Sequence to fold (947 residues):
Amino acid sequence: MQLTVWTYEGPPHVGAMRIATAMEGVHYVLHAPQGDTYADLLFTMIERRDRRPPVTYTTFQARDLGGDTAELFKTATREAYARFRPEAILVGASCTAELIQDDPGGLARALDLPVPVIPLELPSYQKKENWGAAETFYQIVRAMAGPTSPPPGSKRPARGPGVRPSCNLLGPTALGFRHRDDVEELRRLLERLGVEVRVVAPLGATPADLARLGEADFNVVMYPEIAATTARWLERSFSQPYTRTVPIGVGATRDFVEEVARLAGLEPAAAVATAGSRLPWYSRSVDSTYLTGKRVFVFGDATHAIAAARVAAEELAFTVVGLGSYSRELAREVREAAARYGVEALITDDYLAVEAKVAELQPELVLGTQMERHIAKRLGIPCAVISAPVHVQDFPARYSPQMGVEGANVLFDTLVHPLMMGLEEHLLGMFREDFEFHDGAAPSHLGTHASLPSVPAAAPPPAAATLSWAQDAEQELKKIPFFVRGKARRNTERFAAERGLARITVETLYDAKAHFGR
Amino acid sequence: MSEVALAHRPTASAAGCADAPILRERGQREVFCGLTGIIWLHRKIQDAFFLIVGSRTCAHLMQSAAGVMIFAEPRFATAIIEDRDLAGLADANDELDKVVARLIERRPDIRLLFLVGSCPSEVIKLDLGRAAQRLDRRFAPGVRVLNYSGSGIETTFTQGEDACLAALVPQLPAADGTPSLLVVGTLADVVEDQLRRILIELGIERLAFLPPRRAGALPPVGPATRFLLAQPFLAETARLLETRGAARLPAPFPLGAEGTLAWLRAAADAFAVDPRRFEAVTELPFERARRAVARWRPELAGRSIFFFPDSQLEVPLARVLARELGMDPLEVGTPYLHRAHLAAELDLLPKSTRLSEGQDVDRQLDRCRAARPDIVVCGLGLANPLEAEGLTTKWSIELVFTPIQGFEQAGDLAELFARPLRRRARLAV
Fold:
C-alpha cells in the first residue's frame, strides 16, 4: 500500500480514454462501477471538449455483484454499438472490474459485432496512465495495421521518382500537454522541409487511418511515453524507422531537422528550419544577462523534463541543480540526461519526495507540473509549468506549442516570465524601507486594499540556539531582498557554525557571502 | 403568511407529486461515488482526516473533483492498494497499519481518522470495520478511528456523507431527558450560524449540529432528541438516530424562503414555540428572503428546467424553482428518491413534473434533447457537451459546494439559476 496525497498520473484506463477520446470512430466500453465516470470531466472540463468522451461505463453496483455482471457488460457493449456505430470497439476493465474477472475481451468477442473488437489488458494495480495510453495505442494500431503488414523480412520498396518523402506523427492524445499545438507546429516545420504528413495518430485519426500507417517512409515519435511502443512495432512490421529526437527547444529542433532529413533522404536544412526563432537573440540580448547561472529544478514527464533541462542549460544558461520525472518507464533516459548536468535523477511519483528535494536544493526557479507549482508557491520559489498532469490553464486559447520554432519562443517566455517577476520583487526589496514599497505592501496591480497573505515565519534553524546575531549584522541582513534572505541567513549560520563562531557580525555575513558566492 | 402555513401543512397531496409514478432506470449512471463527499466533510470537521483505502482511480477522482489541487496538503489521502496487497504477499492489514501509523505521526493535529472503503476494498472484502477497531484501540485516546464506505458500488455522491454521519451516530454520547434539537447534515458554517441564531431566538436553546466542527464535540442523542434533516440524502443516518430514540421532524428542506420557514416551523411546533414569537423572529428574514428571490423571478418565471440526477437535492430544488420562481420542472432526476423524507417536498411539486430515479444517461440525454429545456442541471461530464448542442446548463456540483440553504442564501440560490441564462443572453460571440 502506498500513501498518496496527490498523483501525477491517473490509472491506466484513463490513458486508454485519452486514446479513444483523441480518435474518431472508436468507442470504449469500460467495465467499471459508478463513480468511475468522473473521468469524463477531465475531458469536458479541463480540456473543454465539446463532446462526451466516447466511453460507455457499465456502472455496476453492489447488488449486481451477486448477479450477472458479465451480462451487464454484454448488454452495455451491444447497446453502445447500436447507438454509436463505431468503426472499432475497445473493451476493458477499470481497477474494480479487474478484480471480478469477467473477461471483457471474451464477452465482447462472443457478441459477434461486425467491427474489430480490441481487448485491453491494463493492470490497474501495477501500471499507470501513460503506460495505459501507450498500450492502448499499440493494441489498436496492431489490430488495424497488422493485417496490412508485409511478410516478415520483406524489404521496404524504394520511394518512386517524384514522390515526396512522408511520415506519420505519433503520440498526440486527448488531455495532452499542448499536443494540439505541437501537431500544428510540426506540420508547419515538416511542410517547410518538404516532408508530407500522412497520418497523425491517435489525435484525430480514425481506425481506417491507422490501417494506412505503414505507407509513410518513417514515423515521428512526438511523445515517447505514448508512442514508443507503437513505433517499435511499426519498425519491426513495416521496416519504418522513427525519430529519437523530441524537437523541444532550438537545439533539439535543429537535431530533429537533421534526423528527419536523414530519414527522408533530404539535404539537412536546419538553418532554414529554425529561422525565425527569437529565442537565440533574446537569450543573447543583455537584458538576459541576469539569467546566467540561475539555479533551476526540473520535474515532469520524461519527455518534457529532459527537454526543459536542455533548454534551461544550453539556451538560457541556467544551472540545472535537479532533474527528475514520474515516468518510471523512461527512467534510464532521465538518468542519462541528469548525468549530463552532474546531478542525480529523482525518479518518483511521490510528490512529497519532490517537495523535500525542492526544499533541500533551494533552487531559484522550478520547472514542473501543476504539483510543483503548488510546491514552489509554498516555498516562495518562482515556477513555470512545463508538463502534464494538466490543468485547465494548460489549454490556453492562444496558439502555444512546446515543439519547433514557435515552441522555443513560447518556452523562452514561459521560463523567463516567472523570473521577471523575481526581478520586480528584487526592486521591491531594494525599496524595502520605502513608504509605499515595503515588505508588507501587496503588488500594486492588486489595488490599494490588497494585503499580502501572511507568510509563516521560517522556523529558526537548530543552530540558532548556540549562535547569536549582532544587531548591526541583523540590520544588514534585512537589506537583502526578502526572497533570498532566508537562504542568506541559513548560509551565514552554517558558515559560522562550521567555524565555531558564536556571534555573527557584519564581517561574518560578508565572509559567508564571499564563501558561498559563485 | 397563510400561503406558507398551507405549504407547511398540505391538506391533501392531490396537487403534488406524492403519488406520481416514477421512471426507474438502470443503465449507465453518470454520477460521482460517495468518496467525493470527503471534499466538503474534511472542511467541516476540522480535525478529521479521511484515509481512502482504494486504488489509483480513487486518488485520481479525489484530485480531479477537488477543484484540482487547491490545498497543498489536504486532510484526505489514499492508501493505494498495490499488486502485492492483492497477491497476498503483503498482508493488507499490516500494510494499512503501517500507513496509518505513518500518517498519524505526520499529522499530530488529527483527532478523528476515518478509514473510507472504496470499490476495490469492498470487492476484495478488506474488513475496514475490524481494522478501525484495531487501530482505534492502538491510538486511543488521542485519535479515534472509525470507518465507512464511500464506494461507488454502494454509494452515489452525497450518500457518502450519509455513510460518514451514520458511522458517527453510534459514537454520539447518550443525552439526558431534556428535549433537544439536532440539525443533521453538513451546512456551510455561515448557514449553520444563521440557523443557530434563529433557533436560539425561538427559544430552542438545547441545540446541536451533526457533523460537529470538532471531532471532540459530538452532540448527545436520546429519546428526548428531535432532529431536523438539513439535507435530503441522509436516509441511513436518520434510521440510526431513530434507533437511538431520536424522532425526525418531518419538514421540507431549508431551501428558498418558503422551505426555510417551513423547516423552522417544524422545529417551532415540536418545541411548542408561541406562534407570535415564531412570527416575530422569522418575519423579517423571511420577507428579506422573499424580496431577494423575487428579484430573479422575472428572469426565471415560465422557464423550463431539466434535472439530471446528482446529489438528491434535485426534488427540493425543483420545488423552490417551481413555487418561488415560477419555473416549470420538466423532469427531475435523482439518484435515489426517499419517499418518506421527501414527502413534504413531493406534495409541493407541480403535478406535471416527471420524476425519474436512477439513470440511463444516453436515454435521459435523448429525453432532454427532445424536451429542449431552458436550463439543464447536470454534472461536469455533461455540461460542456450540452452547451455545445445549444442548451443552457447549470453545474449541479455548485449546488452542493455553495451555501444555498437558509433565508439569507435564498436569493443566491435563485441567482445561480439566473446566471447561465443571463450569460447566454449577453454573449454576442
User: Anything to note?
Assistant: Chain B has three domains: 3-29+293-428, 34-155, 180-291.
